Amino acid sequence: MKIYYVEDEKDLAEIIRKYLAREGFDVEVFHDGETAMKQIDDAVDLWILDIMLTGDISGYDLIKALKERNSAASVIFTSARDQDLDKIMGLELGSDDYLAKPYSPRELILRVKAVLRRREQGQTAEAIVYEPYEINLAKREISFDGQMIELTNKEFELLLFFIKNTNVAFAREEILKHVWGDNYYGSDRVVDDLLRRLRHKMPQLKIETIYGYGYRLL
After folding, report:
1. Which residues of 23-52 are buried (b: 16+ CB within 10 A; e: fewer)?
2. Cis, peptide link before residue 132, omega less than 30° from 0
3. In what order do the strands lie in the sheet with 214-217?
4. 110 and 12, same structural domain?
5. DSSP-assigned letter for residue 206
6. What is the pTM of this model?
7. 21-43, pLDDT tens digit by residue?
8. Which residues is 144 bridged to in the sheet?
9. Contact (Cβ atoms closer than 8 angstroms) between residue 51 and residue 86
10. Which of 99, 121, 143 is the last residue of a domain?
């Protein structure tokens, strides 16, 4: 697995690089957003992005560039600002996880493995159909009437979770656990926000709101 790690604290970056390399990952480190942006089109499995970087390009800028290019890479945000608003904004932009500083190298390794495991599990089949949409799991692409629909990684994973569990009602807390993993701690408002965007992009989805509980895909 190829990982790009963007962190302007050079001592921390070197420590994390060694831990990731020890786990068998191919890791390249960038210390500023400008240098990382030049590599944005590379084929990478995972980006680990610090939100606040030295220079004019932040982690938010990098993930926006990734999404504009329809990158299939997963993204983990890190930040010294441990606030729900930062977590929600990162997840809304399409990150797969959020880790507040200071964090231990072992915790980051566990998050990396969990994100990549969920990514691989979502690609076990080639394609599935939910009328009128066709979903290519290997390419993480959605099409409707021959036109591509652009989804963030989290929007795609939420869609896939519902399609695999059609007609099953889930509480917001359950959706958080299945889509974001056990390590997410924050407001369940992020589920409502993500579903609102998914409904806007895919209006033919029959997502039922169960008031006071959660959601179900019919």
Report:
1. eebebebbbebeebbeebeeebbbbbbbbe
2. yes
3. 170-171, 214-217, 207-210
4. yes
5. -
6. 0.60
7. 999 999 999 999 899 999 988 88
8. 133, 147
9. yes
10. 121
